[in-house]
DNA sequence: GTCGAAGCTTGACGGTCATCGTACTTCCGG
DNA sequence: CCGGAAGTACGATGACCGTCAAGCTTCGAC
């Protein structure tokens, strides 16, 4: 009800974001090995602005998408904040590049060259 | 029995190595997400010469190690050749860097900064 | 030829994770 | 206040993958 709430004042409902420097490399790789999550990251990397959860092009249900966003947030890859009922997502590029130099660039670059096929109901597109 | 067999003539027993350019990014990430396999890669990156399979410092049984070497070979990350009964392993750095620029460097670099804890009988060191 | 060393193959097992549906919460517009 | 929209939380389920032991193959030494 405050007139103060534009885009930044409603952040209470979001669990705390980790310090990227404290995230283990293992967690980062586990986050990025999933094609759906990697698709989220590349869509963010290609965008110039934040993206709503619901505006991503994803082949999974809403609850599964929520799960993926959480993994990415906990891996320090994305930052989330509320705007109304919409959760906005940003890539934490600068911070991440400090902690893992070159990693995100190399991955997004590779994903652009070889777009990862993200089809639903398939956990291991390589083996399948 | 040929006198010709120094180190390169015995390569028959090794399945063919893939063309790195044809390896999907997904396969590369699935290979590198495992801490044991990442440990193999970093040990190779730190070495100046080839390493025998048995000379790696790995917390798993021989059969499991064989499995990991195969995954890495099929992901285009290592090259294997026989020398007697020993299988030698080399990092395919140059080829890999051409196909996935910056990826290997960023990963090895990150792994050096944050050495991955590879303990036996543990598939998900992050969650555990 | 025989033996040991090095490593592969196979089969089985157990844990982890991606997936979903359902129910719940929070916010905005009338 | 009420309804819809946007997401989350919670269980349940099924598949994949890392793990190992046992047995086999290949090579080198003697």
From TrEMBL, chains A, B:
Superkingdom of this protein's organism: Bacteria
Xref: InterPro entries: ArsR-like_HTH, HTH_ArsR_DNA-bd_dom, WH-like_DNA-bd_sf, WH_DNA-bd_sf
Ranges for domain HTH arsR-type: 17-111
Any GO MF annotation of the entry: DNA-binding transcription factor activity
UniProtKB keywords: DNA-binding
SMART domains: HTH_ARSR
DNA damage keyword on record: no
Protein's name in the database: DNA-binding transcriptional regulator, ArsR family
């Amino acid at each position: 009800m405050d007139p103060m709430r534009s885009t930044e004042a409603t952040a209470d409902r979001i669990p705390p974001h980790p310090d990227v420097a404290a995230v283990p490399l293992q967690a980062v790789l586990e986050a990025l090995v999933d094609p759906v999550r990697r698709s989220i990251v590349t869509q963010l990397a290609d965008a110039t602005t934040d993206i709503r959860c619901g505006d991503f092009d994803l082949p999974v249900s809403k609850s599964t998408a929520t799960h993926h966003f959480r993994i990415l947030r906990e891996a320090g890859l994305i930052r989330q904040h509320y705007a109304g009922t919409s959760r906005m997502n940003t890539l934490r590029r600068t911070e991440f590049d400090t902690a893992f130099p070159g990693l995100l660039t190399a991955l997004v670059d590779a994903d652009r060259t070889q777009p990862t096929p993200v089809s639903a109901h398939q956990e291991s597109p390589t083996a399948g």
